[in-house]
Amino acid sequence: MTKRLFVKGNEAVAMGALEAGCRYYFGYPITPQSDIPEYISRELPKLGGEFIQAESEVASINMLLGASACGARAMTSSSSPGISLKQEGISYMAGSECPGLIVNVCRSGPGLGGIDASQADYFQSVKGGGHGGYHIIVLAPDSVQEMYDMAILGFDLSDRYRVPAMILADAVIGQMKEGLEPHSYVAPDDLETKDWALIGDGKAGEQKIIKSLYLGDGELEAHNNHLHAKYAVMQEKEVRYEGIELDDAKLVVTAYGSTARIAKTAIRLARKEGMKVGLLRPITLFPFPKAAFKQCKRDGQRILCFELNNGQMVEDVRLAVRDVEVDFYGRAPGAGSLPTPEEFLAKIRSRYEA
Amino acid sequence: MSTEMKKVFSRPDSLKDVQTHFCPGCQHGTIHRLVAEAIDHFGIKDQTIGVASVGCSVFLYGYFDIDVIEAPHGRAPAVATGAKRVHPNRPVFTYQGDGDLAAIGTSEIIHTANRGELMTVIFVNNTTYGMTGGQMAPTTLPGQITSTTPYGRDVTKAGYPIKMAELLSGLDGVAYSVRVAVDTPKHVLQAGKAIRKAFETQLDGKGFAFVEVLSSCPTNWGMSPLAANERVGSEMIPYFPLGEYKDATGE
Amino acid sequence: MNHDVFMAGFGGQGVLLIGNLLAYATIMEGNDASYFPAYGVEKRGGAATCTIVMADKNVGSPVVGEPEAALLLNPLSMEKYYDRVRSGGFALVNSSLIDDDGSSRDDLQKVLIPANEMALEVGDSRLVNMIVLGAYLEYSKVVKMETVKEALKVVLPERNHRFLPMNYQALERGADFCRQALSMK
Questions:
Q1: What is the CATH number of domain A241-353?
Q2: Which of C48, C80, C47, C53 has the alpha carbon at shortest distance from C67?
């Protein structure tokens, strides 16, 4: 039997990253994610890696850019206000096609926000966040095990497409402790040597340039079309979601991350009451599982979206299914308490009966 | 009598055989050349990583035949830190202007210097934002007219020119901090020597090395190349004195 | 198997420690568990609560609105959380500090346990948490006492292993008390 550990989500994401071969971490302290730099500052030196507590979030994302440009697996982690500061660097990474892992253990609300669990950063994460009209890969783990697994997946996807990857979590997923089965990392066969990067001791032949500035006639347009073509391929090939009891469901609940965990119990309770309810949990928030929602539409299923915000992902669900009615129930960030399965069950009941 | 001539002047190997986009009389070309000569001198062209900044120096990769990463505005020292940690054996340098390094990138330069990162920073101070069109820079001299100080820089409101070479010399992580100019042949020679030493400091693992180079910007100063060059000596050097502000390289 | 328990007290009563221990022991036995802590902003003396959900596999929500069981260690916790315990559930009330005897409800099993006095009898007032954990194990049988003892060995740093016997004794005393209390009903 594999050894099962009992760790926090924040530690799991750090462990997964190191297992995936991440040897460079750059960050700045902020609650509720400080377990990540604390774990990594302890473990990375043992692996011969480099940990830098940077002077700012801005500096740390740019250190990540530099390390990534040199072909290394590298990461940063932060929480909402810190992620806002990093947006400049994320935009440059997207523009200059530098992969890398960014973990956001989200805070609640605008400005300084609170440290309650919240999903207030969905828009910022999936709609680009910084300037210029780009996307990054956004993964939403709903367990400690997935924090580990998605750190690894995040690096693989990020390297495959040369698109930065973000893990979007919150205080529930980050601070909760659960069982974790670590596993040895095996790089996917299709991951190629990063010939585009400044790898090795010196340049072999061609000069290598990592840049986002294209001034030649039509160059920038072509570059932007190239970026968006990659997003289209990802939309085709890299969508991930979990479906629970969807086949006979009359009502499909959708939620991601911590909210999905609460919804899972709510659905079990609803089934006990005889209601045909299923769960569609987006795991990749970008690319978004549009096709799965379109299937709900074909199957004539109603959709109910739960979020820990005032309604963000629900907009993408509505876009995916157009004229189908999508109900929403959310809690504003900073409620001080979390919604309970019983609370979700009551909403399911009222929508089911309506 | 032999008709063979000895070649005494040629393009450094580290520079590409291209025309620059710099304005007539701009001294970036001279400074590029001095950096390239230093790279040639140590034979590190194939290993060196340059980090370009935002402004006139963004086209570093167009002129230097070396690997280059383009950094966001002011962040070159942070980008270079990431690169250097991945490739501790490759020489890394940043090339930044005054707006980039001494305004928007103040935090990055100070902390990178303070960490004693093994890198070389070339800081070109021409008292203005060149590419953006001649706005006030942190190094704009008191009373100097720019497109955003049409009545001259009023130090009571806009503060004083920042003296970066002096400022950084106070940090323990800095091994070498110097200010040079390229307005006279003698100064060019001194500048070349300082830049060489700044690379040597890095190659010998002695610490962070900083070279501030005073430069002209005839276009944005509204001067002829000659008058602009003259101004470096008459106005800039008195305010920004040349010299080594720190040399902890043990020589 | 599908159990959940909510624990609440003030910081320093060791609520988070036994929550951790219970979840860890559950995982050691090959089942699944989640441990979700919530505590006040204060480093010391604030409110400390945690929820542990245990299942054969796939714990659903780590958050529970109406817990199956609640361990209430101080008056504020009793006031705030007693009414939330699921009908037919179990409440363990630290009667050393809580005057309320829980008589407002008769739809659940309740055990009033003088945990502070019992801890002192064993030899250390800090053993309150082990007393109540022992009592909960007796009620729920969710994990074996032996597994919890093993888990404690792992959780406790080597240098503190000399305190293990005392902790074991507190766990046993809590279990004994609960067994007697439940058999009298």
A1: 3.40.50.920
A2: C53
Going A267 to A272 to A277 to A278, the CA torsion angle's sign is positive
Number of independent structural domains in chain B: 1
Closest CA in chain A for residue B62: A209
Tell me how far apart the alpha carbons of residues C110 and A294 are, in angstroms, rounded to a whole number: 50
Instruction: Report how far residue C135's alpha carbon sits from residue A88's, in angstroms, rounded to the nearest whole number.
Output: 55
Prediction pTM value:
0.94
Domain of residue B74: give its range.
28-247
Interface test with C, best of A170, A265, A281 (most C CBs within 10 A): A265
- Neighbouring residues of A303: CB distance < 8 A, sequence distance ≥ 6: A251, A252, A253, A254, A280, A293, A296, A317, A321, A324, A325, A326, A327
Q: What is the CA radius of gyration of chain C?
A: 15
Segments making up each domain of chain A, as ranges: 5-180, 241-353
Residue A237: CB partners within 8 Å, gap ≥ 6? none
Q: What is the mean pLDDT of chain B?
A: 96
Give CA–CA dist A348/B3, Å, rounded. 97
**Sign of the four-CA dihedral B7, B13, B15, B16:** positive
For residue C142, which of C18, C34, C15, C2 has the smallest C-alpha distance?
C2
C180 CB neighbour count, 10 Å cutoff: 11
CATH of the domain at B133: 3.40.50.970
Inter-chain CB proximity C66 and A340 less than 8 Å:
yes
Amino acid present at A202 = G
Place of tokens 């106070």: B170
Tell me the per-residue pLDDT of B182-215, one tens digit each, with 9 for 90 and over: 999 999 999 999 999 999 999 999 999 999 999 9
Q: Does C32 touch chain A (CB under 8 A)?
A: yes
For residue C44, the model assigns a pLDDT of 52
Rounded Cα–Cα distance for residues B161 and B240 (Å): 9
By C-alpha distance, which of C65, C5, C56 is closest to C35? C5
Distance from CA of C78 to the nearest CA of A (A): 18
Q: Is the Cα torsion angle A53, A38, C50, A241 positive or negative in sign? A: positive
Whether B173 has its CB under 8 Å from any CB of chain A: the answer is: no
Please list every residue in chain A whose beta carbon sits closer than 8 Å to the beta carbon of residue B65.
207
Is residue A307 within 8 Å of A259, Cβ to Cβ? yes
Distance from CA of B61 to the nearest CA of A (A): 7
Report if residue B242 sits inside a domain. Answer: yes
Q: What is the ipTM of this complex?
A: 0.94
Hey, what domains does chain C have and what are their CATH numbers?
2-183 (3.40.920.10)
User: A5-180 adopts what CATH topology?
Assistant: Rossmann fold (3.40.50)
pLDDT in tens, C36-94: 998 554 445 568 999 999 999 889 999 999 999 999 999 999 999 999 999 999 999 99
- Residue A239, classified by CB atoms within 10 Å of its CB into exposed (0-12), middle (13-18) or buried (19+), is middle
